[in-house]
Amino acid sequence: MKKKSTITFQAAALACLIFAAQSQISVAQPPSENAAASAADRVGGLSYADIADLADMAPLVAEARIGNIISLKPDRAGTVPAGYRRVYVEADVTNLIRGEGGISPTVRYLYDARLDERGKIPKLKKMRVILFARPGGRPGEIQLVARDAQITASPDAASRVKGILSELVATNAPPRIIGLGDAFHVAGTVAGEGETQIFLRTENGDPVSLSILRRPGQQPRWAVALGEIVDEAARPPERGSLLWYRLACGLPSTLPARSVRALSPQDAEAARADYQIVVQALGACGRTRRTG
Description:
Low-confidence stretches: 1-9, 18-37
Structural class: alpha+beta
Distance between the termini: 45 Å
Largest sheet: 6 strands, antiparallel
Number of helices: 6
CATH architecture of the largest domain: Beta Barrel
Strand content: 25-35%
Mean pLDDT: 85
Number of domains: 2
Number of strands: 10
Oligomer: single chain
Helix content: 25-40%
């Protein structure tokens, strides 16, 4: 009787999780053209931007040890892309990294495992993983925020995740960039001198701006300011920081026409050239996964 009850519960849980997976787990797409981060920037094959994407989406982040695995038959698995097999996972949580409401000691979730060259599911049982998730519909259930939101746990991976989450929850955390606002350019009194300021549009409305300064005989200098006032202490962000990630992964490759609509043709061209200095200095964001 107890065994039958357990099977019935698992069947109900599977049905709920499959329904949730169909509507909320996004597909990991092939790498984008900007997947050019160096091997030194990667942890477990993922770049800073890859992990930041997942951490930014996930209200729950936890380290866990996988216990039971149930491979779902195709007629019960829902829509799964070619080369993957959907599995039902039970895992023991070993460390809650993020989650204000806490988390159950044992969690259940669906995971789309990439098949190996023989078309088999890789060995998952006893694997230590880091999960990026949101709470599910029942106690103990979670939903991964993306198809690739389970990564292999290692000291380096845990350190990278904790570092990114610390930056994300800081009171002075840089906001998400959603576009470019107006650009302004002032030419200097001598040839080769000028200054451009470009305002960024942010998700929460906080002011962020770029400033690019040119002086004759000197390399152009640029900085980013988080606030209304651009002071002399403003500097470019350090690569592998949250501010760098927000800019490198959030800024468009060129300055749009609407940003320079109020400028003369000559000033608009100067602003576009100055913006390219910023884009080139930031470099490719290194994202190897797509968020949509």
